[in-house]
């Protein structure tokens, strides 16, 4: 459950970053997020994750979202 929340949150944050710069690579990220949500929805009604092909696709989509991760930068301004 934690991995799903982290993957979707990371995807959302990076998608916001890519939209600000109007980077077309955001389309890959949108596709990966849509595939994750689609597989989760299908998993509610069927046993799709027992099939190796679908399981591999799931991990590829999570890896695609994770590949866009960038560390957050902090402002080092000290307000005294």
Question: What's the rounded overall pLDDT mean?
Answer: 83
Q: Could you say how many structural domains there are in total?
A: 1
Please report the number of helical segments: 3
CA-atom Rg in angstroms: 16 Å
Structural classification: mainly alpha
Fraction of helical residues: 55-70%
Q: Largest sheet, described in full?
A: none
SSE series: HHH
In the predicted model, the low-confidence regions spanning at least 5 consecutive residues are none
| Shape annotation | elongated
Please provide the count of β strands. 0
Beta content: under 5%
Quaternary class: single chain
Terminal-residue CA separation: 41 Å
Can you summarize this structure?
With 80 residues, this protein is mostly helical. It has helices spanning 2-20, 26-45, 52-67.
């Amino acid at each position: 459950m934690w991995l799903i929340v982290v993957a979707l949150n990371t995807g959302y944050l990076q998608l916001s970053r890519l939209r600000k710069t109007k980077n077309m690579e955001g389309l890959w990220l949108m596709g990966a997020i849509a595939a994750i949500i689609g597989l989760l929805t299908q998993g509610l009604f069927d046993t799709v994750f027992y099939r190796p092909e679908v399981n591999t696709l799931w991990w590829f989509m999570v890896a695609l979202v994770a590949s866009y991760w960038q560390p957050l930068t902090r402002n080092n301004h000290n307000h005294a």
